[in-house]
Amino acid sequence: MDLSRYRSIVPDWPRFVEASSREEPTVFRVRTGRISPDDVADRLREQGYRIHPLDGMPGFFQVDEGPRPVSFTLEHWLGLIYVQQASTGVAAPALGPRPGERVLDLCAAPGGKTTHAADLMEDRGCLVAADVNEARIRGLLGNVYRLGHPGVLVVSADGRDFPEGALFDRVLLDAPCSGEGTLRRRGGTPPNQSASFLRYVTRAQAALLRKAVRLTRPGGTILYVTCTFAPEENEAVVSGVLADEPVELEPVALPVPHAPGVTAFGDLRIDPRLEGAARIYPYHLDSGGLFLARLRRLDDGGEAVEGEDSTAAWSRVPPVFPGDGMEAGEAEGLVARGVDALHDHFGVSADAFAGMGWIARGGRLWLHALSEWPMEAWASGPWRAISAGFRALEFDTRGRPRPTNDLLQWLGRAVGRGVVDLDTADLQALLRGDALARPEELYGLLALRWSGAVLGRGVATAAGVKSEIPKARGKDLRAVLDRETPVTPPLEDD
User: Could you say which of 110, 184, 192, 343 would form a disulfide bridge with 139 (CB–CB 3.0 to 4.6 Å)?
Assistant: First the structure.
């Protein structure tokens, strides 16, 4: 698409063109629920990275220089940082999620905005992350698990058909779009979308936004976001919903440079209130493009309300996933056995799980921090729940508990015994599939620790110590260790 058609609405066209043609700098966000931004900054600077914090964006840093892509550091592998465009990092704070709230991300994968919102919620409350694309959901799960967010319920569903019956305090709609704001990843050239795609996507955006309104409680907040410049996909979509849905526009006051929404573009009819939306152009944050519009859900009489509660359809998370078939007593027995084994074998105190819950599914236990969930109110339909928190305990054929790699990493320093400390050569050998000599005092399951961090699970047998870190994760860790091999960083982003 020819971007010159936006010349009349971009406040500084020469800067737009210049910024769009430059390579975008790498930016990352700190997983603040697990480590402080200062600690991450110190660790990376010790490794030779030159970074600086971004104004108005707590926990975000730009990488000015470094020995390798920051995505090939132990900090990234452990989920202490998330590589994310600066522009997309504005969305979750604009949504404003708070600890203990009920929040829905209607188009969540691959999870940048989802996990940012979870951090802002301090992993308290219930954050439902939905997406329709199975491949993208796998990426979403990988990011939720790697960053260690136990307060996220992942659901496979088309947002247009998302189950109703429960209302949320806040709904984020990061709508599918033509993606023009990602042009810097393509050397300044935006995606070339067909006219039929543009007709389809605007209809889909409007349907998703209307669904988001129906899923929000009176007084609640809806944030509509795209990464495109097109007013047809931005202001025009919101304007149509403002005309006939019980919502009002709330002006977006961002703590970073931005432009107001547009109220005129060609033949489009745009509600003048859309000036209160926000546009981020590539030159604002030296990043990509983003559009944000925040709506407040009104009550049925068209009146604004503040803080109205809506507890109907929300319930406590049961000990067993619905439809699993396991009895609650059996699940509680698995929990007791698992917690005891973690204490006896790894020295993990029961206090490590304060405020957490367990739920059984498929003979496994998942650890979660959901204060409640809406699943029992959702009618059957084209959706399915995938995970609540993350898988934490498995059981072998003899019923013995086995902590997952995700759980051991999440526990970190709470693991007090059953640990093998590795030097780099030993870890490289384990990741190649070799066995190490077994410490005399250790047998059975153990935790592998390198550079002060618990990496995951190992096992000590008569044949020696072997790694049980999954192959894909092990391959990524080998790239972290092999500092001489040129690597291409994976795309993570929003």
Answer: 110
Q: Mean pLDDT throughout 476-493?
A: 70
DSSP sequence for 92-145:
HHHH---TT-EEEETT-TT-HHHHHHHHHTTT-BEEEEEES-HHHHHHHHHHHH
Residue pLDDT, tens place only, 346-371: 999 999 999 999 999 999 999 999 99
Confidence of residue 306 (pLDDT cuts 50, 70, 90): low
Q: Which residue range forms the structural domain that includes residue 453?
A: 418-481
429 lies in some domain: yes
* Domain annotation covers residue 456: yes
Between the alpha carbon of residue 190 and those of residues 21, 26, 136, 228, the distances in Å are 11, 19, 22, 9
pLDDT surpassing 90 at residue 118? yes
Q: Tokens 């015994």 identify what position?
A: 417
422, part of any domain? yes
User: Is residue 445 included in any domain, yes or no?
Assistant: yes
Dist CA 28 CA 164 (whole Å) = 35
List residues with catalytic annotation.
227
Query: pLDDT tens digits for 172-196?
Result: 999 999 999 999 988 888 888 888 9
Burial class for 15, CB neighbours closer than 10 Å (0-12, 13-18, 19+): middle
Query: In angstroms, rounded to a whole number, what is the distance separating the alpha carbons of residues 297 and 398?
Result: 53
Domains: count for the chain:
1
Q: How far apart are alpha carbons 290 and 252 in whole angstroms? A: 13
Residue 141's Cβ-count burial label (10 Å; 0-12, 13-18, 19+) is buried
